[in-house]
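pasting input
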Amino acid sequence: DIVMTQTPLSLSVTPGQSASISCKSSQSLLHSDGKTYLYWHLQKPGQSPQLLIYEVSSRFSGVPDRFSGSGSGTDFTLKISRVEAEDIGIYYCMQGIHPPPYTFGQGTKLEIK
Amino acid sequence: EVQLVESGGGLVQPGGSLRLSCAASGFTFTSYSMNWVRQAPGKGLEWVSYISTSSSTIYYADSVKGRFTISRDNAKNSLYLQMNSLRDEDTAVYYCVRNKGGAWGQGTLVTVSS
């Protein structure tokens, strides 16, 4: 199975500052169809996860442009510009290359200073 | 509005069975593959099972293979997970998830304990 490794596992950020989370996969997530199946999800406290970014860098419907994804192959980054209080929670990267199993990173907990 | 509503969770003894259901609305259910993902208390996310739009392709995590069965009824816009031979380590919130995570349900808690 593909192993997803996130760093750091926790992050404390001052409102208005930026934050970055790294995600590395044990195998390339570039599919033969030309797409790279790397996703970012956010689980806010007490809530279900929600999709933020799909296929490395595409923002899901309604996601603020403060969130951006980048990377290729096995190395990926989620950047949050101008962090706000509502951004707290646990961020998970996920590989969705077909066929399953799909796998998630360990999660990165974002707190506000 | 896209909605996924799970039901069927509860307390069950080791070795027992449960059937989870997920009612989908607000989108064309027949156009999306579906998944079950679980989260043990205080832990991260674990993919459990996948089913294609026509049910022709199904996958399971090794941890549940042979014990869990995923199915769907496109006429009822519903997804199911039949869970047999339950173990303590199956205790988790189970989420119904559309495709690669475009929508998540609120989850249903399954507790396996004697």
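fyi The mean pLDDT of chain A is 96.
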